[in-house]
Amino acid sequence: TRIVNDRLAEARIIEDDINNPVLPEDVIYTPLWNSKSAMHFALAGFMDINDDGIDDREVVKRLILINNGKIDAEESNGEIDGSMTHHTRYLIIGEQPASGGDGATDQARQGAWTKMINQATDLGVEQVSFQRLLDFVGYDGEKRTIPLGRNASSDDFEGPAGSATDQRGS
Question: What is this structure's pTM?
Answer without folding.
Answer: 0.61
